[in-house]
Structure formats: C-alpha cells, structure tokens
Amino acid sequence: MSSEPRKRKTTMGLKIISVILSVLLWFYVVNQGELTARNNAIEVELVYYNLSEGLNIEAPTKVSIKLWGKLQETGDVLAYIDLSGLEEGTYVLPVKVEPIKGAMFTSVEPNSVEVHLQEVREHTVKIQYEITQPPPPDHELLDVQIIPENCVIKGEDAIAEQVKTIVCSIDLSNLKGISTSQLDLSARDAQGKPLNDGLKIIPDSVKVYTVVAEKRSSKKVKVVPQISNYPGTEYQLVDINIQPQTVNILGTELKVQAIEEINTIEIDLAQAKESFSRETALVLPAGVEVYPEKVIINVSIEKLAEEVEE
C-alpha cells in the first residue's frame, strides 16, 4: 500500500477526533449550568507569600481574573505573588493563580504588579498615659505606673517619623484603691490623631497600676483643754496655757471641713496643789491624722490667802 492512502486515513482520523472533541466540549459547557461567560471577570484579593522578616510591603491588593466555566465560590480563586528571597527594593513580579476546580482559567489582569519592599525601622518610645474619665467624686489619682515604660515601634521611616507619642488610655471612673489593668497602646501624631496603618507596636499592650484614693486636705485647728475636778477650796486655778495652741489635721475633705477644734484628754485638777507643766495627748477624730499628736499644757495654781480674824 502506498503512503498516499495512509496519509488520507490519518488526516481523516484526526478530523473525526476533532469533531468528537468539539461535541464533548459542547456537552461539557452546556452541562455546567450557568456559564460565567455572561460576567466572566471577578475581582479577588492578591496574596503575598514569603515576605522576609524586617520588610514592609507596598503593592496592589486586588487583581481581576477572567474565567470560563462554572465557579462555585469566588473564594476558591487564589491569586498570589511569591516574594521568596527578595530584599529591600522595587520589583515587577508575575501574578500566579492556583488551578480552579470547575472552571477554565483564561487570564489575570494585570498579569504582573509593581512591589515596593522597604526595611522596617525600629524606634524606642516612652509610653505615656491619658485620663479619659476622672476618678469618682471626692477621689483623686495619686500615682500611675506603666510596665514596661518603653515600647518599640516598627515601620517605614516616613510613617514612624510622624509618631509623636505612644499612649494608653485610662478610665478611672470605677477605680478605687490600687488597681491593675491591661491596656492597649495607640500611636499619635503631633495633633493627637491616631496612626494605625503601617506601624507595629511591640508590645501592643501594657500593664498599668493606678492608685486612686479619697481626696485629702489639711488645715490648722485650735486645741481646747478639757478640765475636770477643779482644785479644792484652798487652791484656785489661775491660768492654763497650751503649746502649741493649734495643730494640723489631715484627712478626707469632708472630714477635715467638719472639724474646727481638737480636744485634749481630760485633765483632773482635784488633787492639784501647785503649778505644773505636762505633755498631754489629744483626742483624735476617727479617720483623721493630727500632728503634733501631743501638746504641752502649763497649769498655774495658787493657794488662797488665809482670812485674818479680827
């Protein structure tokens, strides 16, 4: 048999196979149900893999993908960029798409993107605090301690340089005594506006100890001697002098305002027959501190003159 008939048979066989494949493809498309050909472009997130430690990325976040066939979920589409081994710099990198089940991939737009990688800078910043709500009435903030006192911010120089303060916000409205809170940190610019994008704060929260106590005030009040059982008929009390005549009291505002004088303990003069000087304690009101706690009382006593009989 000549080669010419064999060529004809081969050509005819290829034509038959082509027709069969076309028919099968037509049945495949028809049986897929709703085709994406009516709206075959979908927008998906662009994922970046293998970003080296210490680098920050600036690049597009979405691409458009054209599909042919039945697509169950747009979440099944994965478009990504591989950043393996890349250092600081600007690159034009191809967009890769994972095989999509139930659909024929046609194209991605754009098929490559410009990626800018910049080294992340570190800056140490002292942590400050702001009071968002004051303490309860008649209370005051005595102390605040933040642990740790400093934090590290990481980000591009252009962003990190905008950071004026790192702040934790404290609400004192329901705090009394010694309290402990775990509070988040926030970066602020010179105008006090938050800076959230492109920055990483390490740590991102701190432990804050606050001491909130009742408001305390002080004032000077008069010391009043308390005398009982004056001398007998042969002696008389001439004078009582106290040093100092006033003392300082310290306590909450309400208690201090209500006190106008402080009494000594009772001094019994029933058996007194001569002048004396004595350190005497004071009667301390509840919840109030007094200083000094004792005073010197000087008591002058004279004997009455005897009557002369005529």
Which CATH top level class of the largest domain fits?
Answer: Mainly Beta
Supply the number of helical segments.
Answer: 3
CATH topology of the largest domain: RNA Polymerase Alpha Subunit, Chain A, domain 2
Taken as a percent bin, the fraction of beta residues is over 45%
Explain what the structure shows.
- With 310 residues, the protein is mainly beta.
- It folds into 4 domains: 1-31; 36-119, RNA Polymerase Alpha Subunit, Chain A, domain 2, CATH 2.170.120.30; 121-214, RNA Polymerase Alpha Subunit, Chain A, domain 2, CATH 2.170.120.40; 216-303, YbbR-like domain (RNA Polymerase Alpha Subunit, Chain A, domain 2).
- The protein has 3 helices and 23 strands.
- It has helices spanning 3-31, 157-160, 253-257; strands at residues 41-49, 55-58, 62-69, 79-82, 89-94, 96-97, 103-109, 112-119, 121-133, 139-147, 150-155, 165-171, 177-184, 186-188, 199-202, 205-214, 216-228, 235-243, 246-252, 261-268, 276-281, 289-291, 294-303.
- Strands 6-4-1-3-7 form a 5-stranded mixed β-sheet, with no helix packed on it.
- The radius of gyration is 46 Å and the shape is rod-shaped.
- The N and C termini lie far apart (187 Å).
- Residues 33-39 have low confidence and may be disordered.
